Amino acid sequence: MGQIFDVMTEFFKEDEWVVYPLEGQTVLRMGFSGKNAKWTCYAQAREEQAQFVFYSVCPVDAPEEK
After folding, report:
1. Average pLDDT over the chain, rounded to whole?
2. pLDDT attached to residue 63
3. CA-based nearest residue to 30, from 46, 47, 13, 52
4. How confident is the model at residue 16 (pLDDT cuts 50, 70, 90)?
5. Residue 38 domain-assigned?
6. Host domain of residue 14
7. Is residue 65 part of a domain?
8. Tens of pLDDT along 32-58?
9. Which of 46, 17, 65, 23 is nearest to 9 (CA)?
10. N or C: which end of the chain has fewer CB within 10 A?
11. Which long-range contacts link 8-14 to residues 24+ away (Cβ below 8 Å)?
12. How far is it, in rounded angstroms, from Cα 65 to Cα 62?
């Protein structure tokens, strides 16, 4: 797909993350388990901008007043 996508895919596989490519996109979805929660992460290759972006989506709802 592209150099950044290929490098990030190889990195996560070598680090033994289970990754799921999103069809038609340069994005990998993966899960992560920490001490207090489990959440979903996304790794995105933005080839034209020469960027790697990592999103971590925490499933904890913050109170409205916070």
Report:
1. 93
2. 85
3. 13
4. very high
5. yes
6. 3-57
7. no
8. 988 878 899 999 999 999 999 999 998
9. 17
10. C
11. 8/43, 8/45, 8/52, 12/43
12. 8
Q: Would residue 62 count as lying in a domain?
A: no
Q: How many angstroms separate the CA atoms of 12 and 43, rounded?
A: 10
12 with 54: CB under 8 angstroms?
no
Q: Would you say 14 and 3 are in contact if contact means Cβ atoms under 8 Å apart?
A: no
Q: Based on the structure, what is the number of domains in the chain?
A: 1
Residue 66 maps to a domain = no
Chain segment 21-30, per-residue pLDDT in tens:
999 999 999 9
